[in-house]
Amino acid sequence: VKISPEIQDSLEIRFRSTARDLNRRGERIISLGLGEPGFATPAPIIDAAAQAMRDGHTRYSNPFGLPELCERIASKLKDENGIDAKASDIIVTPGSKMALSLALGAILSPGDQAIYVTPCYPSYLPQIKISEADCVARAIDLRRQDFRLDLDAIAAALTPATKALIINSPHNPTGAMIGRDEIEALADILSASQCILISDEIYERLNFSGAPHISPASHDKLAQRTITINGFSKAYSMTGWRIGYLHVPDRDLLRVISRLHQHLNTNTAAFIQKAALAALDLPPEIVAGYVATLAANDRALRDALAGNPTVSVRPSKGGLFAFVNIAASGQTSDAFATGLLERHRVAVTPGILFGAAWDDHIRVSLASSREEVAAGVARLADFAAQLSHG
Ligand SMILES: Cc1ncc(COP(=O)(O)O)c(C=O)c1O
């Protein structure tokens, strides 16, 4: 089988098997590696799925998505995101990862260029390459602008062959969020191009920045060229349910994406779509409580690392993660993460998995309980301080 060496095992799957091995050996580890909420899927969502199965929603269904869910998503995008969305612009997919893959598959042709930022969600590059092996994938380094979009670099990278730009806010792994000024600038930069903006907004609801999340598709000049991707995994702890969606304003593109979807997925499981409807009707306190925990965990991490000679971190604004700078340790991210796991039984994710240039960072997940995160970050701070003493 021919597969590019850029396509490695999925990070989440590799991490889970390491954790399982340690658990099997009876070792109790503190996991700051999770890419999913630490709480169970809320009961009303589970009840809705069970009821839907009993009601017979177990057969093939509308490939675009259940009409009532597409309607509900369109009104959410309109009311909360300021996007001029119609139900007929929506396709419900098995996970937002599939939504991203369908978008790239529909957009990219041989010789095209796709731009993404680094560090980033580890599936972006493999997805670009799976969608179109002969596409040039161009990474924009977020280091120069302290994790903000490097707009000059994006403008410089843009060519007539650039067909897609993937952005993600709140951002995995840095916790940065894209501001209105960056969206304004992007609108100008992309105005004369053929480039579709793919906006991955999966962490939208996990926003503790104090500022609103901004969807680029709400901007007049970006509305027509933006595909908005979102899903249910992160806000509602539905990672294993596999449900997400995309909003595609361009009719021709929507038709191509819908064809890919029909032949790859047929439809997204109908009883899971019923559960997603229940998720959208959940009392907002449930997600708000979880967001408060994420904010407290981010504060606990910063407090634990304050003044540490070896590691430092910027405040996260949203999402599930903080990206910790370990450059002063002199270790690779893999060696650092392995040492922390072996000596202090704390699992984190090496920065190298988010881009080759990020071997001087580790990703710390804020997704566990306050107690678990407090214990884990204290051990991380101890481990890092010991490194500075040789
Ligand atoms: C930035 C980003 N996009 C998309 C996904 C995929 O989410 P889903 O479970 O909806 O496929 C993840 C999951 O970790 C992510 O971090």
How are the SSEs ordered, and which strands pair?
Layout: H1 11-24, E1 30-31, H2 43-54, H3 67-81, E2 90-93, H4 96-107, E3 113-118, H5 124-131, E4 136-141, H6 151-157, E5 162-168, H7 180-190, E6 196-200, E7 226-231, E8 244-247, H8 251-264, H9 270-280, H10 284-305, E9 312-313, E10 321-325, H11 333-344, E11 346-347, E12 349-350, E13 361-365, H12 370-388
Parallel strand pairs: 1-11, 3-4, 3-5, 5-6, 6-7
Antiparallel strand pairs: 2-8, 7-8, 9-10, 10-13, 12-13
Helix pairs in contact: 2-9, 3-9, 4-5, 4-8, 10-12
Bound molecules: pyridoxal-5'-phosphate.
Keywords:
390 residues; alpha/beta; 7-stranded mixed beta sheet; 4-stranded antiparallel beta sheet; 13 strands; binds pyridoxal-5'-phosphate
Description:
It is a single chain. With 390 residues, this protein is of the alpha/beta class. It is built from twelve helices and 13 strands. The strands form three sheets. Strands 2-8-7-6-5-3-4 form a seven-stranded mixed sheet, sandwiched between helices. Strands 9-10-13-12 form a four-stranded antiparallel sheet, with helices on one face. Helix 3 runs parallel beside helix 9 and helix 4 crosses helix 5. The protein is globular, with a radius of gyration of 21 Å. 49% of the residues are buried. The mean pLDDT is 94. The chain binds pyridoxal-5'-phosphate. Pyridoxal-5'-phosphate binds next to helix 4.
